[in-house]
Amino acid sequence: MSDIHISLAAEEVLRIGNLSISNSLLAGIVGSLIIFWLFYLAGRRVAVRPRGGVANLVEATSEAVLDLIDQVTHNRAKTLRFFPLLMTLFVFILVNNWLGLLPGVGSITVLGVNGEVPLLRGATADLNTTLGLAIISVVMTQIYAIAELGLFRHLRKYFSWNPILLFVGLLELVAEFSKMISFSFRLFGNIFAGEVLLVVIAYLMPLVAPLPFFGLELFVGLVQALVFTMLTLVFLEIATVDHSDDGHHEVSSARASHLMYDSVPSR
Amino acid sequence: MDPETFKVIMPGLTITLGGIFPALAIGWIGSRAMEAIGRNPEAAGKLQTILILVVAFAEAIAIYSLVVALILKFV
Predict the structure, then answer these.
(1) Considering only CB atoms, which chain B residues are within 8 Å of A178?
(2) Burial of B7 (0-12, 13-18, 19+ CB in 10 A)
(3) Predicted ipTM > 0.90
(4) Could you read off the pLDDT of A161-181 as tens digits, one per residue?
């Protein structure tokens, strides 16, 4: 097994001053350019009946994501507000997951800072990228919640004069950070494990055996992009629903007890 | 046993123990989802999204231990 080269961290390809350019960063830039190019092509052909594969592909993807958001929010205006963030996350993660599976990614090597390293490595197979995405997701959830509810009504979820609610708020504050960790490790673990699996299988039996695993990894890439988007969506929806808002929304048991607490008349 | 043996055994043990419970959880989630779809086939579409989401949650636990095992093995 000594022939296999597996590195947990992304490796440095280039160093400009103090800025180190890793192979994952390069792949991330390539992925971003691909996304930009796809959406630029589709954007030029916006029509009621789009012609051409790319325009149809982008429209179908957008519609699928819109439907997904609609299922959770049940409110078209809200869906359109959430759409840019969620679509960006979904497309970025999906393209980068699949980019890591292309032949040449990981097998073409260049002379890097510390010896020979692969030129490209799937961007989502680097913990830095996934942690960045997780921070974007959590911070944007907070920003959306403040925009939707106002600063004070939002902060009331975390801070309260009531000792029990203060403790609950403290737990929720900790949960925000654990969300970041679980988001980043889930995506990184899945994609990195997939790459290791493919390398090991290709080493053991290079001819036909990796094929079904490539199919599996394509599926895993899609599911992980979907899971990241879905979780962000669910957290967004929970964060933008006011605690002391009765009626319209389905309230979970914790929220319901909170409502009961609030509605006790102060005598 | 000497430390070298431990270094060989531990990654395997980590992923074994970390894999058992998520496997049980995913099997259980799947079986309950089958039951629910069998009872109410029209809800299959709605259940599927939630099913994938919950399975991904359970799977994440296995992935955590996989990451730990990989760190033990390669770092």
Answers:
(1) none
(2) exposed
(3) no
(4) 888 888 888 888 888 998 898
